[in-house]
Each structure stands twice: as structure tokens, then as C-alpha cells.
Design a protein that fits this description.
Shape: globular
Low-confidence stretches: 3-13, 15-22
Oligomer: single chain
Strand content: 15-25%
Order of helices and strands: EEEEEHEHEHHEHHEHE
Structural class: alpha/beta
Mean pLDDT: 87
Radius of gyration: 16 Å
Distance between the termini: 12 Å
């Protein structure tokens, strides 16, 4: 679940794996935002995602993770919250698949006075088989949800969900999210075949969400 922003200026912190030639990039900075990379696991196999096209990097920073990430791995890397406009849970995996770590780290960030955003594919409720938004709402100020298609057929074609009824689930999540989170943005990518970007915009607006139009093949 990669965020699409200008490339990070540098990777602030990493932690060694058992292989001393490899480091896990757990946090990386873009302008005045610190991004937190929680997992490589994902509920989608998006065909436009660079990790399915031979790259697991944002700029020169490899976001590959070869182990389960725990809160104790992340907490020492948070830094001075006053130096950042926000902290963002986002990497090449879906952050809500590592929900316990996400909630623990987010709780610490809120205690320190940070603004916290979550970038998600919107399938957390489907994966966990419950509504996780009440848990997220305690610590998450803003949420960005990837819709990516205005029809189920186009969603299946481009995102290749691993779970059944995924498109209905993300649409439901989009409708529910504004009831729990103050700032909700829904995104779709302009340039995907058989996707009507204006219909995606209308889905977001009808749910009371902001719409963000992204461009195909622009990552980072």
C-alpha cells in the first residue's frame, strides 16, 4: 500500500536484520512528514504497484521487510514529534494487517502530541472480520483510502484482491470512515484502463470524503 508523494529526501532510520548486509527501512521522511513502514504483507496484488513490477524501492530506499515488525522496533525511531507535521503509516504493505503494532505506535504518537495519518486499502474490516474504525479513531486524525476503481470488474482486474467481496468491503469502509475519522480522503489513479476517474470522484463525494486524483506510474 504505497503512498504516492514526491520522493523522500532521505531514510532517517533503519534496523539491521539477521543478514548484516541488509537493513529494514522502518521509517523514512518526506518533507516534514515521517512515514512508518509496518509490513510487506498486503490484501491486494495491484498490477500497478512497483513491488509487483520488479521494484520494492521508493527513490533509493528499499522498503522490503523480512520479519514481523513490533512496536518496540518502531518506538525508538519516532524522533522529535515537534519536527514533523504528521506521522503516516504507509509502506509497500497494508498497515492494518499489523494492527496491534499500528495501534500501539499511534497511541504513543498521540500521547506525544503528534498528528497521525493512515494510508490504507480499506480492507481492514474485511480482513479482521470486525469494524476496526472505532479502534483507529482513538489515535488516527486522518485516513487516506485507496479506491482505485469505480466498478468491481475494474477493481478485480487492476488490484487482484486476495479476499472475496473486497470491492464491496472497500466501498463500505469508505461510507463508514467519516463517522469515526475527522479527515477522510479517497484516492483513485487516473490512467488505469476501464476506470472512470470522475465516477471515483463521485463515490468519494457521496460518502462525504475528499477525493485525491493520482497519476499512473508516479510513485513516491
Amino acid at each position: 500500500m504505497i503512498n504516492r508523494h514526491p520522493s523522500p529526501s532521505y531514510c532517517m532510520q533503519s534496523t539491521p536484520s539477521t543478514d548484516t548486509t541488509f537493513t529494514h527501512t522502518l521509517v523514512y521522511d518526506i518533507r516534514r512528514s515521517r512515514y512508518i513502514n509496518l509490513t510487506s504483507r498486503c490484501t491486494l496484488r495491484c498490477q500497478f504497484c512497483p513491488k509487483h513490477n520488479g521494484s520494492k524501492q521508493v527513490a533509493e530506499y528499499d522498503l522490503t521487510l523480512s520479519k514481523t515488525i513490533h512496536a518496540d522496533d518502531i518506538l525508538p525511531l519516532l524522533g522529535d514529534v515537534s519536527a514533523f507535521e504528521e506521522y503516516v503509516f504507509c509502506g509497500y504493505g497494508e498497515p492494518t494487517l499489523n494492527l496491534a503494532t499500528l495501534l500501539t505506535v499511534a497511541a504513543e504518537l498521540k500521547q506525544r502530541g503528534a498528528k497521525v495519518r493512515l494510508n490504507t486499502d480499506g480492507l481492514g474490516n474485511l480482513f479482521h472480520r470486525r469494524n476496526i474504525l472505532p479502534e483507529l479513531s482513538k489515535y488516527i486524525d486522518a485516513i487516506s483510502i485507496s479506491l482505485n476503481a469505480d466498478t468491481e470488474a475494474a477493481y478485480i482486474k487492476h488490484c487482484q484482491p486476495k479476499l472475496p467481496k473486497a470491492y464491496a468491503a472497500v466501498r463500505d469502509f469508505i461510507k463508514l470512515a467519516p463517522q469515526y475519522i475527522n479527515s477522510v480522503s479517497v484516492s483513485a489513479i487516473n490512467g488505469l484502463s476501464e476506470v472512470n476517474i470522475e465516477q471515483c470522484r463521485q463515490i468519494a463525494i457521496n460518502a462525504g470524503c475528499h477525493f485525491t486524483e493520482r497519476q499512473l506510474d508516479i510513485v513516491g
